[in-house]
Structures are given as structure tokens and as C-alpha cells.
Fold each of these.
Amino acid sequence: MKHPTDVLSFPAQDGAELAEYLGDIAICPAIAAKNSKNLTRELKVLVLHGILHLMGYDHEADQGEMRRLESRLRRRLGLR
């Protein structure tokens, strides 16, 4: 069964200048609000999650590497 998602990442096309443009992130505020009691915090978490995807991390295939990095960054940024 497929479920609605709260964030999608669309990486820049090959050849794009990485330092200039990683790609696009689309966030569904309605789903984010449904998943959290604090929408502002949740939106920040989703932006971080989307950026990690744009940087090439894939939590579905990396044996927890993205999850660990995201957890460390969330602690540093006060997004627990």
C-alpha cells in the first residue's frame, strides 16, 4: 500500500554546478502537520532530510548511513 509522502527531492541534472544548485525539494505541509505537533520544527527536519537526499544519500539503500548522519545533524541543529 502506498502512502502520501511529506517530502520529495529532485536532484539537479548531471552537469549542474554542485555548489550553485543541488536541486529542488517539495514539502507537503498538510502531511507534515499531520505527522508532527510542531509544524515549524517538522518543516526544518524535512528540509534537512531533503538536502541529504540531494547530496546523494539514500536511506532505503545505505544500511543506515543517512539515518545516522541525519540524527547527528538534528542534534547539532537542535531538531530532536
Amino acid sequence: MEPSNIHILVLDRDATSARLIESVLSKEGYRVTTASHETDALNLAAGGLFNIVVKSFDARRIDAVALMEKVRGITPDTQFIFISDGGTIHTAVDALRKGAFDYLSKPINPAQLIESVRKALDHQSLVAEDQQIKLRLRRRSDPDIFAGSSTAMKDISRLIQQIASTDVTVLIEGESGTGKEVVARAIHEKSRRKAKPFIAVNCAALPENLIEAELFGHVRGAFTGAVSDRKGRFQLAAGGTLFLDEIGDLSRKGQGDLLRVLEDGTFRPVGSQKLERATARIIAATNKDLETESHQGGVFREDLFYRLNIVSIVMPPLRERAEDIAPLVESFTAHFCAKHQRRLKKFKPGVVSLFQTLRWPGNVRQLRNLVERLVVTVPHSAIGLDDLPPSMHQGKRELHAIAIQPGMTLAQVEAELIRQTLLKVTSNREEAAKTLGISRRALQYKIQRYKLDKLPRHTRLG
């Protein structure tokens, strides 16, 4: 998990000590929140997820252990690291026995603290092999990307329902930020595998020389540094779902290793003579055109492409589901107001109208991040155009651009032209028909033909 996605709460009555801990952890990229009283810590825990709590520990008081029990009553997965300036070995053992992950002494050793946090996160991830933790973590941190009524997302929702109960391999395609992993998790959570692990792998980050060990695990002594047996991703995902993200960036060697498992249904951990059965369902995702890459130059193996592409889900970019932007903004706003303990805010109609005209190169992720930023930074309850960053207003220069790509059919081009006219020029059907140079009846027919009837409209055709 990226450090920026890790949220740590530092609770210390000593302001100097709290600032030091915050500084050490912030430099590592973690999100850090500080508090000086237990009441504040409990309120923060009730409103947002903390992966780790770093808590000052007074051996003469029991508040640390009591607080740990209360916080875990809210989020059972939070790990605790206690820091004390006067404890004994007996105190440390007692704290660990009652559920703390680690116990450190003051004065704080930055390197020791960083290592303790890293190990606590590793422990949290390993415990999550039963997936209950990861499901809770995700449900508390991810808003809904399916809000809206676009035909494309409705079709994807129906397809998820159809394939979830099967073990069919799925390839999810789409631009970065469209929600490919969210769809993969939705398939998993609606399947009979939902109680088993969902393990995500960033294929682009797998080192060439460690691909086999990362995917299939290794035994002690298999190579220099292999001091103990270690499970690979296929073993961690046993009985569940293995999500191979950025599959298009997997090296040729990795592609061959994966293909062998998909064909044989077995794998061998590095250094082991024992074959193990692969029981995880495979869902892959890419922002590349794998079919083209498999035919041109052999960048991606054609045989692997056909093994993965049994069921294909194509995630639409946000610019092609502009009718969903208003409900997405509403959903994201409610989610982040609750998460960050802000009073409920709303976006003025003019802001949403502007959003519907922009290109959103970062797609749903970009919209989500912008909404979160505005919810946190805008002090008033009604968010208007003046609250937007300047770059958003500059985006209006693309107001009348339409997305036409080589290879599109004439029907697709016509549908896109009508969509963009209704969204970016006028939602008045009569005015749109005049702009397009066709009759109102012809426009109505084309709207129905291309399933554009859910687009925003201000007046009805007579």
C-alpha cells in the first residue's frame, strides 16, 4: 500500500514528543494526525480509519490499554505501538500480551519507530489473508463509483452480477482512474469466494529477478536472503481472487510464468520440489490495448491474451459518462463529509455543469480527489465556482471538443457528437436539433437509438 494511503494517529500529552513523532512519520510519506487527549482520539477514530495508533504509555496509568480496547471496538484492525519513558520489561510484556503490536522506549529512536510501523503494517496485511480486515478497510475508505444512471455503467453492473458466481477469468480494460480495481473487488464480493482473500498485485512493480518468488513463493535457502519460507501471491489468494493490475506491464518472463499456471493449474514455489494447485480466480486489468499489442510486435503474448480475455469488461472514461457526474459528486461529497467530520456540503449547480464539460484525464479518481480536497478545504457549506482551483476554469477551453478516435464507426462518431452537443452546447432538445441541422423528431430517434435519453435536459420535446 502506498504510504500516502496509510493514516497514523499519534496520541501524546507531550506536545514536543508528538511533534517529533509526527515529523519522523510524515517524512516517510504517511498521513499523520495528532491528538493530546483520549477523548479527541476516540472521536477521530469514530470518524475515520487509522491503520496505526502510536500512543504514549504511562506505566502508572491504564488509559493506554483501555483506549486500545475502545478504538478496536470501532476498528478492530488498528495496530497499536506504545511508547514509554519509564516502563520495565514486565510493563512491555504486559502491554504486548494485551494486544499492542510493539512497545518502544523514550527517547524516540526514529529508525526504530519507522521499522516498528513498517512491521505493524506488514502484520496488518498478513492477518488480512482472511480478507475480513481488507473488506472493512476498503468499505470505510472507498466511496461508490457506480452512482449514476449511464447505460455503460448499468451494463457493467449487470455483467458483474452474471459472472460473479462463476470462476471465469476476467480482463478489465480502461484508462487509469476509471475504477478497474473497484470492479474487480465488486466481482469478488458478489462471488462465493467473498470470505476468502482478495489479493492485488501491481504487475508493473514486480522485479524481473523476483517475479517467480513474488507470485509463487519460495522455500528457505532457495536463494541468497531466503532465510525462511515465504508464501507467494497465488498461495495468499488460495480459494479467493488474485487481481493482476497493470497486466500489460508484466515482463515477458512473468507472462510466460503466468501462462504456465493458467494452462496447468499448478505452480512450484522457488526452491521446492512440490507442485501446488492454483485455486485462486484470476482477474486482470490494464490501461493498454492488449489485443493490438499482442498482434503488433509481440509486446504482449497472444496466447496469454486469449487466456485472460474470456470475459472482457471495458470501463468507460468519465468524459463518456458525463450524465453520472452529478450523482457521483453527491455521493463523494456525502462520503468525505462523513469521513473527515465536516458538516454536509453541497456543490452549486454551476460547478456541476462545469464538471460535465471537462475532459477529466484522471477520470473518476481525479473527480473523487477534487471533491475530497474541496470538502476539506472550503469552509462554507455551498461550494461554488470561485472555490475551484484555477486549472479547472482553464479546462473550459475544451468546452466544444469531442472525443473521436481513429477506428470509430460513423454511428459512434454521430452518437458522440450528439452526446457532446447535449452536454456542452445545450440540453434543450429543440436548440440541439437546430445546432445539429436535423429535425426534433430525428434527434429524438437518434437519442433513443444511441441510448442517450439519460443525459441532463431542461425541456422536453413536444
Amino acid sequence: MKKICLICIVFSLLVFVGCSDGIKKAKDLGNGETVTDEDADADDSDLSDTADSGENGSDTTDSGDPTDSGSTPDSETSDSDTTETGNDDADSQPDEDADSGVAEPTKAEICSQNQGEWIEEQNKCKKIFPCDEQSKPQHAVWTGEGLYTGEWNYDNNEWDYIEHTVEYGENQGSCHFICEPGYLWYNDSCVDDPCDPDPCSEIAKTSCTVGEDASTYECRCIEKYKWDSDISKCVPDVHNCSDDVTAPCRDGKYVWSSKAKDMDWDTAILHCKELDEGGFTDWELPSISTLRTLIVNCPGTEANGSCKISDECPSYNECWSRDNCYTCTNGTSKLGQQENWMWSSTIFPEDESKLKRWGVDFSLGRIGNQTDDNENSVRCVIKLY
């Protein structure tokens, strides 16, 4: 069996060699060459045949050996020939999709095209713009050169305006302005009469007075008022309250009127609204929390005492108790007068008829409620803050 296999292998080898030699000779004949085999023997292996020079010069090709490393180039597609017809970017021939060769402009060139100045140290494009005269009010002048800087935005292809705040002020820089001599900055404009319109109208109880140079003004309290620097406000010019001072008088943040007697609750509201006392007209009926600030000698019902009745807690069920609000016997008023019931403006919420109001009995220092048709005393109040 082994001998038979060996014979088959030898026979196959001889057939292969013969076919290769035939292919080679066919090629040479196709190229116009003449091949001569000096040995006509059928078993010639052509190991020593020499092909004529043809177009390949004097190369010697042994076509009998499939492992032949002769110098004649073969036609396999795997060879690393210098000229290929594919699309490989490494080919020596230029690709059809090659760049046009036109270079993109640099940032500096784009900057120049937009009339900017390229700052190499900052890698930025900048340009100086004049401040818009239309944004400056009449009778105003720039405090600086009236210029601002723009920076080119390469992403948006437009100028970004930096240092560009148009505003009134002495600051030197971009687009700051002040009023011309003789004019005053007021309400977004330069005015020649600093008190027209009245710049003091936003401060209660003041009037505008023109300064010496006619370009400044002062806000002064009107008659019967004085400036309180602690609250930056004009307040009634009255004495502080005590038991020997005639009302109106001031007690802390309140100004109190003199006492009026015997009126129902509706009349009390109207009385304070229309009151003109001491030259002051902004009176109102005090709330229960405000009225409690006049109680003395009764810690439970004084302001912030244990009685919970207040503007924030007017509920009879939740905030009033007899022990804390109605058992005092020594209370009185800061104004030094023994008084009976006095009205407050605070409504008694549990009353379905909405006719009951909270009040203070100053003869004892108690806090209770009265129906609004009762007639009680009244003190009006001006709240300063």
C-alpha cells in the first residue's frame, strides 16, 4: 500500500512539472519568443533550459521549479509593484478627491478682513468702536473718550461687544457720561431745573430746594416735620409722650392724638380718617396690638405680655383667656389719664354678625370686646414705621 501511494505522488509531481513547463512555453510564445528544447526526450525535466532574452532582457527563468526565485517578476496581484490601479492613498498617482490646494484663512487674516487688529500675545482679534451718541441723553458729555472695545467671535462670525456699558457716572471708561454744567441727572435725563419734576416726592413730607449753583437740590422736611436720621424719614415735630405733655405726642414709633370721647365704632373710624390735629392729617384708628403699647402697670396685657390677643392672633377661642387678658386691676395708660374702654380697629372673628371689636379698658388694663354700637373713647395714631 505504501508503495502504491509513493508511485501516485511521483506521478502527480511529474504531471505538475510538465504542466508548468507547458504554461511557461505558452506565455513565451504569446510574447513572440521562440523556445527550443534541445532534448526531445519525453521525461526531460527542463531543469537546465534557457529562455531567450525577449522583452525581459537576459533574465534566466527556470520554469520547472515552483519555488523558483528567479529575477523575472511574476504577475501576482500581491506583488508590491510601484504602480497600482486601486484607490490606496499611498499610491504614487494622485487621488481624484485630493484637496484643491487652497489654504483656509488664518484667524489673523479673518481679523484683518473684518477691519480688526490681531493681538498676537492674546490670540484675539479686537476693534475699537465709538459709543453710540443716540444712547447718550441730551445735555450729557462722555467722561472718557467715548470708545469701547469689540472682540471678534470666530464661532458666530460677529463682534462681541465688551466693555460696553452705557451709563451715567464719573467712572472713566467706555460710554460713561455726566450732565453738562448747569444740568442735573434725574430720572434718566439731564434736567436744567433740579426740582422739576420734584425729585423729593418719593420721600414723604419733604420739599425740593434748589442748591446755590442751580445744578443741585436738597430734600427738606415740610413745615411741622423734622428729619429722623434713625429711620431716614420726616416725622411730626412733636414732644415725646408723658403724663404732663399735651397731645399730639410721640411714643417710640407712634404719634398719638388727644383723646376723643363717646362714639360708636363706625364713627371712630371716620373721626381718625378726617382728623387734622397739630397740622397732621394722616391719622388712623389703632389696631389692638398698637393700642396695647399704651398699657402700663399690667404685665399680662402690656405689649408682648402673656395675653395672646394681637393683630396676628385675634381669635377669642384660640388667643383670649380670662387669666391673662381680663384679671388685671392696676393697669393704666402711658398718657396718664384714667380712661374706660377705648376702640381698636381689630375685628372679633368668631362673631357671626361681625359686629364685635376688640378694645382696652384703661381703667383696669384689661383687654375685651365690645359690640360696635357701644360708645367708647378714641385715640388716633400715626405710625412712623
Amino acid sequence: MLGTFQQSHLRIEVEAQTGVIGESLLRPSQMRRWLWHVSFSDGLPEELHQGLKFTSWVGPVAVQHQVDVAQPNCLRLLLSQGIDGYHEWYWGEGWVQSRLEGISLLPLNLAQTLSLVSLRQYLALLRQSRD
């Protein structure tokens, strides 16, 4: 794999309950709403589950994902092709933490930051619509 080894660990505060955060991270229909800059393969199930494999594209770069762990407060994705590594998500009441490590030509820290900001904005919109 061409690229450099990169690692990034970010944690943000969000105004959302644990279950709402989990639905946003584990349900592809919701992921598509806040990861608007990423395209996903068709035919994804209602909820991510262990062993599931799918592809996403960031522009022309394909990234293969294999769901290693999918639990009510944790998601771990093994990555290959455009990124060789893994992406872990942990969340709880009012917070989300993301850990991304891999070898890639893509600027992983920038992509991770944009994703977390987008997730925070999406959760804020959900909260406004429920209030």
C-alpha cells in the first residue's frame, strides 16, 4: 500500500443521547445523511452488523470496510484498499470518540475531522426537529 502511516484520535461533545448517536453511526440510511461527501455501495442492511463488508468512495478512491464490532456503544471497521487500517467509534451520553489509524495517501485527520463536524451538525438538526 502506498501512503504514509497516519493516526488520529478525536473526541467531541454533542447534544444527543446515546441511542440517537448509535442510530446515526450504525444505520446506513442515517450515515448517508451526515456523510454526504461519501458514497456507499448499494444493498446495505438496515443496521451494520459484525462480518458485514461494504465499499465506500471518497471521490474516486474506494475504501473496503469490514465490520469487526457493532455494539450499542462501539463500532470498529477494518479498512482496506484506499486506507489500510481501522476506524473505531465509541459514544455515550453527550460525546463521540473516533480513532482512525492506517496507511493512505488520503489526509485521514482532515477527513476524520470533517466527518465528526458533520455528525455533530446532523445530531443538532435531529435534536431541533424533535424539540
